[in-house]
Amino acid sequence: MSNPIEILLVEDNPADIRLTQEAFATNKIYNKLHVVVDGEQALDFLHRRHAYSSAPRPDVVLLDLNLPKIHGLEVLKEMKGDSSLRRIPVICLTTSGNDSDIDKAYSIGANAYVQKPVDFPQFVKALEAIETFWLSIVKLAP
After folding, report:
1. How far apart are CA 67 and CA 113, in angstroms?
2. If you count Cβ atoms within 10 Å of the first and of the last residue's Cβ in the chain, which end, N or C, has fewer?
């Protein structure tokens, strides 16, 4: 793509934020990565409220589920219930492998569900696969 992709990472764990940034750098993913650390900030960013009034519209959201303030599934539910946000692809990127979480995420409208690998090389591979599919192959809605 000629323009960089705007990626919103919703993640409360500083180590996972750093790993994601490092994995993107390792894969030479030079899109714009925006980070918020809880569900409330995610919704403010998406709705361009408060400190995020000039935030760009993300092309893709990487969403952790276990978030403070507002749970990731609630963020997903609000996104998919809002006509201005529902077309943004949401990739649940979380440590939870719980079948109930997976079922709920897809039922609400998640576009993909990826369980975070524990070690860095596997985490890099997972992000590389996400990048290849969602940021290189898929044609995103304008």
Report:
1. 16
2. C
How many beta carbons lie within 10 A of that of residue 10, not counting itself? 29
Location of structure tokens 């030479």: 28
Burial of 104 (0-12, 13-18, 19+ CB in 10 A): middle
Cα–chain center distance at 17 = 11
Would the pLDDT of 55 be above 90? yes
pLDDT of residue 108: 97
For the chain, the straight-line distance linking the first and the last C-alpha, in angstroms and rounded, comes to 12
Per domain, the residue ranges of the chain are 6-137
DSSP letter at 56? P
User: Phi and psi dihedrals of 108, rounded to 5?
Assistant: -75, -30
CB-based contact 28:57 (threshold 8 Å): no
What homologous superfamily does CATH list for 6-137?
A: Response regulator (3.40.50.2300)
123 contacts 27 by C-beta, under 8 angstroms: no
A 10 A CB-CB count for 62 gives: 24
Query: Which residue reads 């995020």 in tokens?
Result: 52
